[in-house]
Specification:
230 residues, mainly alpha, 11 helices, 0% strand, elongated
Length: 230
C-alpha cells in the first residue's frame, strides 16, 4: 500500500516537473531550430546572424520568466484555497501584465534591437541580418509572454498535457515552417523569423481555446475595474 502511494506521488511529481522543464527551454529550442536550418545555407553570414539574434531573444525573454513562475504560484495557492474567483483574477491579471509588457517591447523594438545587435554583433552583413531577424521576430513578443502565463496557469491547475500540446504545436510548427520558408521559398533570415512568429501565435490560439473551454473563465473586460480595486 505504502509502495503504491510512493509510486503515485513520483508519477504526479514527474507529470508536473517534465512539462515545467520543457516549457523553460521552449524559447531556446526555437533558436536552435532556426540555427540548424540556416546552418544548411552556403554563406556563414546567415549562421552568424541567427546566433546573434537567437541569443538576444533568449536573454530578453528569459528576463520575463517571472510571468510563468508567479502565475504558477499564485494560481496554485488560489486552487488550494478552492477559490475559483481568485484563480480567475490571478490569471486575468497575469495575462494583462504580459500583454502590456509585450506591447512596450514592440513599441520600443527599433531602439532595443539596435542596442542589442550593436552590443552582441561585430558589424557588417551579420549584424544587418541580425537586425532584420530581430525586427521581425519581436512581433511574436505578445504570443511569447502570454504563452508564459498559460504555461504557468496550466501547470498550477495540473493540466500538464495542455502544456505539452502547446509546446508541440509551437516547436513542430516552427520546424515545418522554417524548412518551407528557408529551403523552399528561400526567404533566409526573414523566413526563420516568420516561422517562429506563426508557430507561436498558432500555439497561442490553441491556448486561448483551452482557456475559453476550461474549468475557470476569464472575467469580462468591463469587470476588470471591479476586481482590480478589490
Amino acid at each position: 500500500m505504502q509502495k503504491n502511494i510512493k509510486t503515485d506521488s513520483y508519477q504526479r511529481i514527474f507529470a508536473i516537473a517534465v512539462p515545467m522543464i520543457l516549457s523553460a527551454i521552449s524559447i531556446p529550442m526555437l533558436g536552435i531550430v532556426d540555427t540548424a536550418i540556416l546552418g544548411h545555407l552556403d554563406s556563414p553570414v546567415y549562421l552568424a546572424s541567427i546566433n546573434i539574434g537567437a541569443t538576444i531573444f533568449n536573454v530578453l525573454f528569459w528576463g520575463f520568466g517571472f510571468l510563468k513562475m508567479s502565475t504558477t504560484g499564485l494560481v496554485a495557492q488560489a486552487l488550494g484555497e478552492n477559490n475559483p474567483d481568485k484563480i480567475n483574477r490571478q490569471l486575468s491579471l497575469s495575462l494583462l501584465i504580459a500583454l502590456s509588457i509585450s506591447l512596450i517591447l514592440v513599441v520600443f523594438s527599433p531602439w532595443i534591437g539596435e542596442f542589442a545587435v550593436n552590443l552582441a554583433g561585430e558589424g557588417g552583413d551579420s549584424s544587418q541580418l541580425a537586425q532584420q531577424y530581430f525586427s521581425i521576430r519581436i512581433l511574436s513578443a505578445p504570443a511569447t509572454l502570454i504563452l508564459y502565463v498559460m504555461f504557468g496557469y496550466f501547470l498550477a491547475i495540473q493540466e500538464t498535457r495542455k502544456v505539452l500540446a502547446l509546446m508541440l504545436v509551437n516547436q513542430v510548427g516552427n520546424m515545418i515552417l522554417d524548412y518551407v520558408f528557408v529551403m523552399q521559398f528561400h526567404w533566409g533570415v526573414a523566413g526563420v523569423a516568420y516561422g517562429s512568429i506563426i508557430s507561436e501565435y498558432a500555439a497561442l490560439a490553441l491556448g486561448a481555446f483551452y482557456l475559453l473551454k476550461g474549468k475557470y473563465s476569464i472575467p469580462k473586460f468591463f469587470e476588470f475595474k471591479d476586481w482590480l480595486l478589490n
